[in-house]
Amino acid sequence: MTKKRSPAPKQPAAIIGAGIAGIATAVRLALKGHAVTVFETQDTFGGKMHQFSLPGGYRFDAGPSLFTLPALVDELFRLAGREPQDHFRYQRLDPITQYFFADGTRLTAWADKEKFAREVEEKLGTPAADVLGFLRRSGRAYAATESTFLHKSLHKAGTYFSADVLKAVAALPGLGLTGTMHQRHASAFRDARLVQLFDRFATYNGSDPYQAPATLSLIPHLEHGIGAFYPEGGIYSIAQSLVGLAEELGVKFRYSEPVLEILTADKQVTGVRTEQDVYDFGLVVSNMDVVPTYRRLLPTQPAPERTLRQPRSSSALIFYWGVAREFAELGLHNIFFSEDYRQEFAAIFGQKTVSPDPTVYVNITSKLTSTDAPAGHENWFVMVNVPHNEGQDWDKLIQTTRRAVLDKVSRTLGVAVEPLLQAEHVWDPRGIEQRTSSFGGALYGSSSNNALAAFLRHPNFSGKLQGLYFCGGSVHPGGGIPLCLLSAKIVAELI
Ligand SMILES: Cc1cc2nc3c(=O)[nH]c(=O)nc-3n(C[C@H](O)[C@H](O)[C@H](O)COP(=O)(O)OP(=O)(O)OC[C@H]3O[C@@H](n4cnc5c(N)ncnc54)[C@H](O)[C@@H]3O)c2cc1C
Protein backbone atom coordinates (compact mmCIF):
# COMPACT_ATOMS: atom_id res chain seq x y z
CA MET A 1 0.00 0.00 0.00
CA THR A 2 1.36 3.46 -0.88
CA LYS A 3 1.41 5.98 1.88
CA LYS A 4 -0.62 9.15 1.16
CA ARG A 5 1.70 12.18 1.25
CA SER A 6 0.31 15.32 2.91
CA PRO A 7 0.74 18.43 0.75
CA ALA A 8 3.79 20.57 1.42
CA PRO A 9 2.96 23.39 3.86
CA LYS A 10 2.32 26.71 2.11
CA GLN A 11 4.81 29.51 2.61
CA PRO A 12 3.71 32.27 5.01
CA ALA A 13 3.06 35.47 3.06
CA ALA A 14 3.59 39.13 3.93
CA ILE A 15 1.58 41.79 2.16
CA ILE A 16 2.89 45.34 2.25
CA GLY A 17 -0.11 47.66 2.33
CA ALA A 18 -3.82 47.31 3.04
CA GLY A 19 -5.04 49.03 -0.12
CA ILE A 20 -7.88 47.32 -1.94
CA ALA A 21 -5.46 45.14 -3.94
CA GLY A 22 -3.53 44.15 -0.81
CA ILE A 23 -6.74 43.18 0.98
CA ALA A 24 -7.99 41.16 -2.02
CA THR A 25 -4.62 39.41 -2.34
CA ALA A 26 -4.74 38.58 1.38
CA VAL A 27 -8.15 36.95 0.92
CA ARG A 28 -7.01 34.93 -2.08
CA LEU A 29 -3.78 33.73 -0.47
CA ALA A 30 -5.54 32.84 2.79
CA LEU A 31 -7.98 30.77 0.74
CA LYS A 32 -5.03 28.97 -0.84
CA GLY A 33 -3.82 28.01 2.62
CA HIS A 34 -1.11 30.60 3.25
CA ALA A 35 -0.72 32.24 6.65
CA VAL A 36 -1.03 35.90 5.66
CA THR A 37 0.11 39.02 7.51
CA VAL A 38 -0.70 42.47 6.11
CA PHE A 39 1.57 45.32 7.20
CA GLU A 40 0.05 48.79 6.91
CA THR A 41 1.62 52.19 7.57
CA GLN A 42 -1.66 53.86 8.50
CA ASP A 43 -3.73 52.97 11.54
CA THR A 44 -6.47 51.64 9.27
CA PHE A 45 -7.07 49.87 5.96
CA GLY A 46 -8.21 51.05 2.53
CA GLY A 47 -5.34 53.25 1.30
CA LYS A 48 -6.89 55.61 -1.24
CA MET A 49 -10.23 54.01 -0.38
CA HIS A 50 -10.54 55.42 3.13
CA GLN A 51 -13.31 57.48 4.68
CA PHE A 52 -13.47 60.44 7.04
CA SER A 53 -15.97 62.87 8.54
CA LEU A 54 -16.16 66.64 8.77
CA PRO A 55 -17.76 68.60 11.62
CA GLY A 56 -21.49 69.09 11.18
CA GLY A 57 -22.30 65.47 10.33
CA TYR A 58 -20.72 64.98 6.90
CA ARG A 59 -19.17 61.63 5.90
CA PHE A 60 -16.95 61.31 2.83
CA ASP A 61 -15.36 58.55 0.79
CA ALA A 62 -11.92 60.09 0.39
CA GLY A 63 -10.84 58.55 -2.91
CA PRO A 64 -12.68 56.42 -5.46
CA SER A 65 -16.32 57.25 -6.10
CA LEU A 66 -17.25 55.38 -9.27
CA PHE A 67 -17.68 51.63 -8.94
CA THR A 68 -17.84 49.21 -11.87
CA LEU A 69 -17.54 45.42 -12.18
CA PRO A 70 -18.90 44.59 -8.70
CA ALA A 71 -18.81 40.91 -9.69
CA LEU A 72 -15.09 41.03 -8.88
CA VAL A 73 -15.93 41.73 -5.23
CA ASP A 74 -18.70 39.11 -5.19
CA GLU A 75 -16.24 36.57 -6.56
CA LEU A 76 -14.08 36.87 -3.44
CA PHE A 77 -17.00 36.07 -1.13
CA ARG A 78 -18.07 33.17 -3.35
CA LEU A 79 -14.55 31.74 -3.40
CA ALA A 80 -14.71 31.76 0.39
CA GLY A 81 -18.06 29.91 0.31
CA ARG A 82 -20.03 32.98 1.46
CA GLU A 83 -23.15 34.44 -0.09
CA PRO A 84 -21.94 37.90 -1.25
CA GLN A 85 -25.29 39.54 -0.46
CA ASP A 86 -24.89 38.67 3.23
CA HIS A 87 -21.72 40.79 3.39
CA PHE A 88 -21.72 43.33 0.60
CA ARG A 89 -24.67 44.88 -1.21
CA TYR A 90 -24.87 47.37 -4.02
CA GLN A 91 -27.36 48.86 -6.42
CA ARG A 92 -27.18 49.56 -10.13
CA LEU A 93 -27.24 53.28 -10.83
CA ASP A 94 -29.87 54.82 -13.05
CA PRO A 95 -29.26 57.53 -14.05
CA ILE A 96 -25.49 57.25 -13.91
CA THR A 97 -24.23 60.81 -14.47
CA GLN A 98 -25.57 64.33 -14.90
CA TYR A 99 -23.56 66.23 -17.52
CA PHE A 100 -23.39 70.03 -17.67
CA PHE A 101 -21.68 71.36 -20.81
CA ALA A 102 -20.00 74.76 -21.03
CA ASP A 103 -22.63 76.01 -23.51
CA GLY A 104 -25.41 75.41 -20.97
CA THR A 105 -26.62 72.06 -22.38
CA ARG A 106 -27.57 69.51 -19.73
CA LEU A 107 -27.67 65.80 -20.42
CA THR A 108 -28.53 62.76 -18.32
CA ALA A 109 -26.59 59.55 -18.88
CA TRP A 110 -29.23 56.87 -18.33
CA ALA A 111 -28.17 53.31 -17.59
CA ASP A 112 -30.45 52.02 -20.28
CA LYS A 113 -28.54 52.33 -23.57
CA GLU A 114 -31.59 53.07 -25.72
CA LYS A 115 -32.79 55.73 -23.30
CA PHE A 116 -29.33 57.28 -23.16
CA ALA A 117 -29.10 57.28 -26.97
CA ARG A 118 -32.53 58.96 -27.22
CA GLU A 119 -31.40 61.57 -24.70
CA VAL A 120 -28.29 62.28 -26.80
CA GLU A 121 -30.44 62.59 -29.93
CA GLU A 122 -32.82 64.98 -28.21
CA LYS A 123 -30.22 67.17 -26.45
CA LEU A 124 -27.25 67.04 -28.84
CA GLY A 125 -28.89 66.16 -32.14
CA THR A 126 -26.75 63.07 -32.82
CA PRO A 127 -28.88 60.18 -34.12
CA ALA A 128 -29.56 57.57 -31.43
CA ALA A 129 -28.49 54.84 -33.87
CA ASP A 130 -24.97 56.33 -34.06
CA VAL A 131 -24.65 56.24 -30.27
CA LEU A 132 -25.94 52.67 -30.07
CA GLY A 133 -23.59 51.59 -32.85
CA PHE A 134 -20.63 53.15 -31.05
CA LEU A 135 -21.55 51.49 -27.75
CA ARG A 136 -21.92 48.15 -29.52
CA ARG A 137 -18.43 48.47 -30.97
CA SER A 138 -17.08 49.48 -27.58
CA GLY A 139 -18.66 46.31 -26.14
CA ARG A 140 -17.09 44.17 -28.86
CA ALA A 141 -13.67 45.70 -28.19
CA TYR A 142 -14.08 44.99 -24.49
CA ALA A 143 -15.10 41.38 -25.09
CA ALA A 144 -12.17 40.81 -27.44
CA THR A 145 -9.48 42.23 -25.17
CA GLU A 146 -10.68 41.81 -21.56
CA SER A 147 -9.40 38.32 -20.94
CA THR A 148 -5.95 38.97 -22.43
CA PHE A 149 -5.16 42.44 -21.17
CA LEU A 150 -6.87 42.44 -17.80
CA HIS A 151 -7.14 38.91 -16.44
CA LYS A 152 -3.67 37.58 -17.13
CA SER A 153 -0.06 38.49 -16.64
CA LEU A 154 1.17 40.14 -19.83
CA HIS A 155 4.66 39.14 -18.82
CA LYS A 156 4.42 35.36 -19.01
CA ALA A 157 5.01 33.68 -22.35
CA GLY A 158 2.08 31.33 -21.72
CA THR A 159 -0.33 34.25 -21.99
CA TYR A 160 0.59 34.71 -25.65
CA PHE A 161 -0.14 31.17 -26.69
CA SER A 162 -3.67 30.86 -25.36
CA ALA A 163 -6.77 30.62 -27.54
CA ASP A 164 -8.12 33.84 -25.93
CA VAL A 165 -5.12 35.82 -27.06
CA LEU A 166 -5.16 34.51 -30.58
CA LYS A 167 -8.84 35.46 -30.71
CA ALA A 168 -8.09 38.95 -29.34
CA VAL A 169 -5.26 39.56 -31.79
CA ALA A 170 -7.37 38.35 -34.73
CA ALA A 171 -10.21 40.67 -33.72
CA LEU A 172 -8.15 43.84 -33.29
CA PRO A 173 -7.93 45.08 -36.92
CA GLY A 174 -11.72 44.84 -37.34
CA LEU A 175 -12.41 46.94 -34.26
CA GLY A 176 -11.09 50.21 -35.68
CA LEU A 177 -8.88 50.76 -32.66
CA THR A 178 -6.05 52.63 -34.34
CA GLY A 179 -5.00 56.18 -33.47
CA THR A 180 -5.89 57.97 -30.26
CA MET A 181 -9.01 57.77 -28.20
CA HIS A 182 -9.97 61.30 -29.20
CA GLN A 183 -9.45 60.55 -32.90
CA ARG A 184 -11.72 57.54 -32.60
CA HIS A 185 -14.45 59.56 -30.91
CA ALA A 186 -14.06 62.50 -33.30
CA SER A 187 -14.43 60.17 -36.27
CA ALA A 188 -17.51 58.52 -34.73
CA PHE A 189 -19.34 61.75 -33.83
CA ARG A 190 -19.59 65.24 -35.26
CA ASP A 191 -20.93 66.92 -32.12
CA ALA A 192 -17.99 68.22 -30.06
CA ARG A 193 -19.96 67.78 -26.82
CA LEU A 194 -20.48 64.08 -27.44
CA VAL A 195 -16.81 63.66 -28.30
CA GLN A 196 -15.97 65.40 -25.01
CA LEU A 197 -18.33 63.10 -23.14
CA PHE A 198 -16.64 59.96 -24.49
CA ASP A 199 -13.13 61.46 -24.24
CA ARG A 200 -13.74 61.87 -20.52
CA PHE A 201 -13.43 58.11 -20.05
CA ALA A 202 -9.64 58.52 -20.48
CA THR A 203 -9.63 60.05 -17.02
CA TYR A 204 -10.89 56.75 -15.59
CA ASN A 205 -7.28 55.64 -15.57
CA GLY A 206 -5.69 59.07 -15.32
CA SER A 207 -4.84 59.44 -19.01
CA ASP A 208 -5.11 62.05 -21.74
CA PRO A 209 -7.66 61.26 -24.50
CA TYR A 210 -5.51 63.18 -27.00
CA GLN A 211 -2.60 60.76 -26.42
CA ALA A 212 -4.19 57.57 -25.08
CA PRO A 213 -4.70 54.79 -27.62
CA ALA A 214 -8.13 54.16 -29.14
CA THR A 215 -8.29 50.81 -27.31
CA LEU A 216 -9.34 52.79 -24.22
CA SER A 217 -12.60 53.64 -25.95
CA LEU A 218 -13.78 50.30 -24.57
CA ILE A 219 -14.05 51.94 -21.13
CA PRO A 220 -17.52 53.43 -21.86
CA HIS A 221 -18.73 49.85 -22.19
CA LEU A 222 -18.03 49.32 -18.50
CA GLU A 223 -20.50 52.04 -17.58
CA HIS A 224 -23.00 51.95 -20.43
CA GLY A 225 -22.83 48.22 -21.20
CA ILE A 226 -22.22 46.50 -17.85
CA GLY A 227 -23.30 49.29 -15.50
CA ALA A 228 -22.19 51.66 -12.79
CA PHE A 229 -22.93 50.68 -9.21
CA TYR A 230 -23.13 52.11 -5.73
CA PRO A 231 -22.27 50.00 -2.68
CA GLU A 232 -24.64 50.25 0.26
CA GLY A 233 -23.05 52.71 2.70
CA GLY A 234 -20.56 54.05 0.14
CA ILE A 235 -17.36 52.92 -1.54
CA TYR A 236 -15.57 52.41 1.78
CA SER A 237 -17.81 49.39 2.40
CA ILE A 238 -15.89 47.52 -0.32
CA ALA A 239 -12.69 47.65 1.73
CA GLN A 240 -14.58 47.19 4.99
CA SER A 241 -16.42 44.06 3.90
CA LEU A 242 -13.30 42.49 2.39
CA VAL A 243 -11.23 43.17 5.51
CA GLY A 244 -14.02 41.45 7.49
CA LEU A 245 -13.72 38.45 5.17
CA ALA A 246 -9.91 38.43 5.37
CA GLU A 247 -10.04 38.49 9.17
CA GLU A 248 -12.54 35.61 9.20
CA LEU A 249 -10.06 33.67 7.07
CA GLY A 250 -7.33 34.28 9.64
CA VAL A 251 -5.43 37.13 7.96
CA LYS A 252 -3.51 39.24 10.50
CA PHE A 253 -3.45 43.01 9.97
CA ARG A 254 -0.58 44.90 11.57
CA TYR A 255 -1.55 48.57 11.42
CA SER A 256 0.80 51.49 12.09
CA GLU A 257 3.68 49.20 11.14
CA PRO A 258 5.29 50.36 7.88
CA VAL A 259 7.65 47.94 6.20
CA LEU A 260 11.10 49.55 6.00
CA GLU A 261 12.91 46.88 4.01
CA ILE A 262 12.26 43.72 2.04
CA LEU A 263 14.92 41.24 3.14
CA THR A 264 16.64 39.04 0.59
CA ALA A 265 19.34 36.40 0.34
CA ASP A 266 20.60 34.60 -2.76
CA LYS A 267 18.02 36.13 -5.08
CA GLN A 268 15.15 35.06 -2.84
CA VAL A 269 13.03 37.16 -0.47
CA THR A 270 13.44 36.06 3.13
CA GLY A 271 11.23 38.48 5.03
CA VAL A 272 10.49 42.07 5.93
CA ARG A 273 11.88 44.53 8.46
CA THR A 274 9.77 47.06 10.32
CA GLU A 275 10.70 49.35 13.18
CA GLN A 276 9.19 46.83 15.58
CA ASP A 277 10.80 43.61 14.35
CA VAL A 278 12.29 41.45 11.63
CA TYR A 279 9.90 38.82 10.23
CA ASP A 280 10.64 35.71 8.13
CA PHE A 281 8.52 35.25 5.01
CA GLY A 282 9.18 33.21 1.89
CA LEU A 283 6.57 35.23 -0.01
CA VAL A 284 6.23 39.01 -0.05
CA VAL A 285 3.57 40.86 -2.04
CA SER A 286 4.02 44.61 -2.30
CA ASN A 287 0.83 46.65 -2.57
CA MET A 288 2.99 49.75 -2.09
CA ASP A 289 3.50 51.74 -5.30
CA VAL A 290 6.19 49.95 -7.29
CA VAL A 291 8.48 53.02 -7.50
CA PRO A 292 8.98 53.50 -3.74
CA THR A 293 8.98 49.71 -3.30
CA TYR A 294 12.24 49.59 -5.27
CA ARG A 295 13.66 52.93 -4.11
CA ARG A 296 12.96 52.59 -0.39
CA LEU A 297 12.43 48.91 0.43
CA LEU A 298 14.98 47.36 -1.96
CA PRO A 299 17.65 50.09 -2.20
CA THR A 300 20.51 47.71 -2.97
CA GLN A 301 18.69 45.69 -5.65
CA PRO A 302 18.90 46.67 -9.33
CA ALA A 303 15.65 48.44 -10.23
CA PRO A 304 13.84 48.17 -13.59
CA GLU A 305 14.60 51.79 -14.46
CA ARG A 306 12.75 51.94 -17.76
CA THR A 307 9.55 50.71 -16.12
CA LEU A 308 9.89 53.00 -13.14
CA ARG A 309 10.43 56.01 -15.41
CA GLN A 310 7.14 55.57 -17.30
CA PRO A 311 5.14 58.82 -17.18
CA ARG A 312 2.71 58.94 -14.29
CA SER A 313 -1.06 59.17 -14.54
CA SER A 314 -2.86 62.31 -13.45
CA SER A 315 -3.52 63.10 -9.82
CA ALA A 316 -6.42 64.98 -8.27
CA LEU A 317 -7.26 68.05 -6.30
CA ILE A 318 -10.30 67.36 -4.16
CA PHE A 319 -12.44 69.78 -2.17
CA TYR A 320 -14.71 68.07 0.33
CA TRP A 321 -17.54 70.43 1.14
CA GLY A 322 -20.44 70.30 3.55
CA VAL A 323 -23.14 72.19 1.65
CA ALA A 324 -26.13 73.72 3.43
CA ARG A 325 -28.68 73.06 0.71
CA GLU A 326 -29.98 70.33 -1.56
CA PHE A 327 -29.81 70.54 -5.35
CA ALA A 328 -32.52 68.56 -7.11
CA GLU A 329 -30.76 68.80 -10.49
CA LEU A 330 -27.67 66.99 -9.15
CA GLY A 331 -27.26 63.26 -8.70
CA LEU A 332 -24.56 60.96 -7.33
CA HIS A 333 -22.17 61.71 -10.23
CA ASN A 334 -22.09 65.15 -11.86
CA ILE A 335 -19.74 66.59 -14.45
CA PHE A 336 -19.31 70.28 -15.21
CA PHE A 337 -17.27 70.29 -18.42
CA SER A 338 -14.58 72.81 -19.36
CA GLU A 339 -14.99 74.79 -22.55
CA ASP A 340 -11.74 73.63 -24.14
CA TYR A 341 -10.89 70.01 -23.31
CA ARG A 342 -7.73 69.94 -25.45
CA GLN A 343 -6.34 72.93 -23.59
CA GLU A 344 -7.28 71.33 -20.25
CA PHE A 345 -5.29 68.15 -20.98
CA ALA A 346 -2.40 70.15 -22.46
CA ALA A 347 -2.26 71.98 -19.11
CA ILE A 348 -2.24 68.72 -17.12
CA PHE A 349 0.13 66.57 -19.19
CA GLY A 350 2.08 69.23 -21.11
CA GLN A 351 2.53 72.21 -18.82
CA LYS A 352 2.07 70.05 -15.67
CA THR A 353 -0.28 72.54 -14.11
CA VAL A 354 -4.02 72.97 -13.50
CA SER A 355 -6.14 74.42 -16.26
CA PRO A 356 -7.70 77.80 -15.37
CA ASP A 357 -11.00 76.33 -16.64
CA PRO A 358 -10.99 72.76 -15.33
CA THR A 359 -13.70 70.15 -15.77
CA VAL A 360 -15.28 69.72 -12.34
CA TYR A 361 -16.59 66.40 -11.03
CA VAL A 362 -19.01 66.54 -8.09
CA ASN A 363 -19.89 63.34 -6.25
CA ILE A 364 -22.69 63.49 -3.66
CA THR A 365 -23.15 60.26 -1.72
CA SER A 366 -25.85 61.78 0.50
CA LYS A 367 -28.11 61.45 -2.55
CA LEU A 368 -28.10 57.69 -1.89
CA THR A 369 -26.87 57.39 1.71
CA SER A 370 -28.95 60.01 3.48
CA THR A 371 -26.92 59.75 6.71
CA ASP A 372 -23.82 61.11 4.90
CA ALA A 373 -25.10 64.68 5.45
CA PRO A 374 -27.63 66.33 7.79
CA ALA A 375 -31.20 66.67 6.46
CA GLY A 376 -31.43 69.42 3.86
CA HIS A 377 -27.64 69.37 3.33
CA GLU A 378 -25.30 67.57 0.94
CA ASN A 379 -21.74 66.20 1.14
CA TRP A 380 -19.92 67.34 -1.99
CA PHE A 381 -16.73 65.62 -3.12
CA VAL A 382 -15.49 68.08 -5.74
CA MET A 383 -12.62 66.81 -7.87
CA VAL A 384 -10.46 68.34 -10.58
CA ASN A 385 -7.91 66.34 -12.60
CA VAL A 386 -4.40 67.71 -12.07
CA PRO A 387 -0.84 66.57 -12.87
CA HIS A 388 1.06 64.39 -10.44
CA ASN A 389 3.26 66.19 -7.97
CA GLU A 390 6.54 67.51 -9.34
CA GLY A 391 6.94 70.30 -6.81
CA GLN A 392 4.34 72.68 -8.27
CA ASP A 393 3.17 75.53 -6.04
CA TRP A 394 0.10 73.61 -4.87
CA ASP A 395 -0.99 76.17 -2.29
CA LYS A 396 -1.33 78.75 -5.04
CA LEU A 397 -2.97 76.28 -7.44
CA ILE A 398 -5.47 75.29 -4.76
CA GLN A 399 -6.44 78.91 -4.26
CA THR A 400 -6.96 79.70 -7.95
CA THR A 401 -8.67 76.39 -8.69
CA ARG A 402 -11.04 76.75 -5.74
CA ARG A 403 -12.15 80.12 -7.12
CA ALA A 404 -12.58 78.74 -10.66
CA VAL A 405 -14.57 75.74 -9.38
CA LEU A 406 -16.88 77.86 -7.22
CA ASP A 407 -17.47 80.28 -10.10
CA LYS A 408 -18.24 77.54 -12.61
CA VAL A 409 -20.57 75.53 -10.37
CA SER A 410 -22.37 78.64 -9.07
CA ARG A 411 -22.80 80.01 -12.60
CA THR A 412 -24.14 76.70 -13.92
CA LEU A 413 -26.55 76.10 -11.04
CA GLY A 414 -27.56 79.77 -10.74
CA VAL A 415 -26.84 79.69 -6.99
CA ALA A 416 -23.88 81.18 -5.10
CA VAL A 417 -22.30 78.06 -3.60
CA GLU A 418 -19.56 79.63 -1.44
CA PRO A 419 -21.93 81.04 1.21
CA LEU A 420 -23.42 77.53 1.57
CA LEU A 421 -20.13 75.92 2.58
CA GLN A 422 -20.26 74.76 6.20
CA ALA A 423 -17.25 72.48 6.31
CA GLU A 424 -14.23 72.03 4.09
CA HIS A 425 -11.23 69.79 3.64
CA VAL A 426 -8.73 69.68 0.76
CA TRP A 427 -6.64 66.72 -0.51
CA ASP A 428 -3.96 67.45 -3.11
CA PRO A 429 -1.26 65.38 -4.88
CA ARG A 430 1.21 66.02 -2.04
CA GLY A 431 -1.27 64.69 0.51
CA ILE A 432 -2.19 61.69 -1.66
CA GLU A 433 1.49 60.80 -1.97
CA GLN A 434 2.08 61.28 1.73
CA ARG A 435 -0.89 59.19 2.82
CA THR A 436 -0.60 56.30 0.35
CA SER A 437 3.06 56.38 -0.88
CA SER A 438 1.82 56.67 -4.49
CA PHE A 439 4.68 58.10 -6.49
CA GLY A 440 3.89 61.78 -7.17
CA GLY A 441 0.39 61.24 -5.80
CA ALA A 442 -0.61 59.71 -9.17
CA LEU A 443 -4.03 58.09 -8.83
CA TYR A 444 -3.45 55.21 -11.23
CA GLY A 445 0.30 54.51 -11.31
CA SER A 446 1.72 55.02 -14.79
CA SER A 447 -0.45 56.66 -17.43
CA SER A 448 -1.88 54.91 -20.48
CA ASN A 449 -0.77 57.71 -22.77
CA ASN A 450 0.84 55.47 -25.34
CA ALA A 451 -0.05 52.31 -27.18
CA LEU A 452 2.55 50.21 -25.36
CA ALA A 453 1.66 51.41 -21.85
CA ALA A 454 -0.07 48.13 -20.97
CA PHE A 455 3.14 46.23 -21.72
CA LEU A 456 5.41 48.73 -19.96
CA ARG A 457 3.63 48.53 -16.62
CA HIS A 458 5.55 46.55 -14.04
CA PRO A 459 4.65 42.84 -14.02
CA ASN A 460 2.95 41.25 -11.01
CA PHE A 461 6.14 39.39 -10.12
CA SER A 462 9.84 40.13 -9.83
CA GLY A 463 12.01 38.64 -12.53
CA LYS A 464 15.06 38.94 -10.22
CA LEU A 465 13.90 37.95 -6.75
CA GLN A 466 12.13 34.68 -6.09
CA GLY A 467 9.08 35.05 -3.87
CA LEU A 468 8.48 38.75 -4.60
CA TYR A 469 5.15 39.80 -6.14
CA PHE A 470 3.33 43.07 -6.82
CA CYS A 471 -0.33 44.04 -6.73
CA GLY A 472 -2.21 47.35 -6.88
CA GLY A 473 -2.75 50.32 -9.12
CA SER A 474 0.90 50.93 -10.06
CA VAL A 475 1.44 47.51 -11.67
CA HIS A 476 -0.32 45.33 -14.25
CA PRO A 477 -3.16 45.55 -15.20
CA GLY A 478 -3.40 49.14 -13.86
CA GLY A 479 -5.24 51.47 -11.50
CA GLY A 480 -8.86 51.73 -10.43
CA ILE A 481 -10.80 49.36 -8.18
CA PRO A 482 -11.59 46.62 -10.74
CA LEU A 483 -8.05 46.41 -12.08
CA CYS A 484 -6.60 46.40 -8.56
CA LEU A 485 -8.89 43.46 -7.75
CA LEU A 486 -7.69 41.72 -10.92
CA SER A 487 -4.05 42.30 -9.96
CA ALA A 488 -4.78 40.34 -6.77
CA LYS A 489 -6.24 37.51 -8.83
CA ILE A 490 -3.19 37.41 -11.13
CA VAL A 491 -0.78 37.42 -8.16
CA ALA A 492 -2.64 34.58 -6.47
CA GLU A 493 -2.58 32.58 -9.70
CA LEU A 494 1.13 33.24 -10.23
CA ILE A 495 1.93 32.10 -6.67
C1 LIG B 1 -9.21 61.02 -5.37
C2 LIG B 1 -9.25 59.68 -6.02
C3 LIG B 1 -10.30 59.33 -6.86
C4 LIG B 1 -10.36 58.08 -7.46
N1 LIG B 1 -11.46 57.73 -8.20
C5 LIG B 1 -11.62 56.44 -8.59
C6 LIG B 1 -12.88 55.98 -9.06
O1 LIG B 1 -13.85 56.75 -9.14
N2 LIG B 1 -13.00 54.67 -9.42
C7 LIG B 1 -11.94 53.79 -9.32
O2 LIG B 1 -12.11 52.61 -9.65
N3 LIG B 1 -10.74 54.21 -8.84
C8 LIG B 1 -10.56 55.49 -8.46
N4 LIG B 1 -9.38 55.91 -7.90
C9 LIG B 1 -8.23 54.99 -7.93
C10 LIG B 1 -8.32 53.91 -6.86
O3 LIG B 1 -8.64 54.50 -5.64
C11 LIG B 1 -6.99 53.21 -6.75
O4 LIG B 1 -6.60 52.69 -8.02
C12 LIG B 1 -7.02 52.06 -5.75
O5 LIG B 1 -7.77 52.33 -4.62
C13 LIG B 1 -5.57 51.77 -5.40
O6 LIG B 1 -5.51 50.67 -4.56
P1 LIG B 1 -4.15 49.96 -4.25
O7 LIG B 1 -4.48 48.57 -3.81
O8 LIG B 1 -3.20 50.11 -5.37
O9 LIG B 1 -3.52 50.67 -2.98
P2 LIG B 1 -3.55 52.12 -2.34
O10 LIG B 1 -4.93 52.56 -2.13
O11 LIG B 1 -2.60 53.00 -3.04
O12 LIG B 1 -2.97 51.76 -0.91
C14 LIG B 1 -1.65 51.36 -0.69
C15 LIG B 1 -1.53 51.09 0.80
O13 LIG B 1 -0.22 50.67 1.07
C16 LIG B 1 0.21 51.29 2.29
N5 LIG B 1 1.67 51.31 2.28
C17 LIG B 1 2.46 51.98 1.40
N6 LIG B 1 3.75 51.76 1.70
C18 LIG B 1 3.77 50.94 2.78
C19 LIG B 1 4.81 50.33 3.54
N7 LIG B 1 6.11 50.54 3.26
N8 LIG B 1 4.47 49.53 4.58
C20 LIG B 1 3.16 49.31 4.87
N9 LIG B 1 2.14 49.85 4.19
C21 LIG B 1 2.45 50.65 3.15
C22 LIG B 1 -0.41 52.67 2.22
O14 LIG B 1 -0.48 53.27 3.49
C23 LIG B 1 -1.78 52.34 1.65
O15 LIG B 1 -2.72 52.05 2.64
C24 LIG B 1 -9.29 57.15 -7.27
C25 LIG B 1 -8.23 57.49 -6.43
C26 LIG B 1 -8.22 58.73 -5.78
C27 LIG B 1 -7.09 59.06 -4.84
UniProtKB/TrEMBL annotation:
Belongs to the carotenoid/retinoid oxidoreductase family. Keywords: Carotenoid biosynthesis, Membrane, Oxidoreductase, Transmembrane, Transmembrane helix. It comes from Hymenobacter daecheongensis DSM 21074. InterPro entries: Amino_oxidase, Carotenoid/retinoid_OxRdtase, FAD/NAD-bd_sf, hydcarot_desat_CrtD. This is Phytoene desaturase. SUPFAM superfamilies: FAD/NAD(P)-binding domain. Pathway: Carotenoid biosynthesis. It holds the Pfam family Amino_oxidase. GO terms for biological process: carotenoid biosynthetic process. GO terms for molecular function: oxidoreductase activity. The keyword tRNA processing does not apply. The chain crosses the membrane at residues 12-31. Residues 20-495 form the Amine oxidase domain. PANTHER family: 4,4'-DIAPONEUROSPORENE OXYGENASE, PHYTOENE DESATURASE. The keyword Membrane applies.
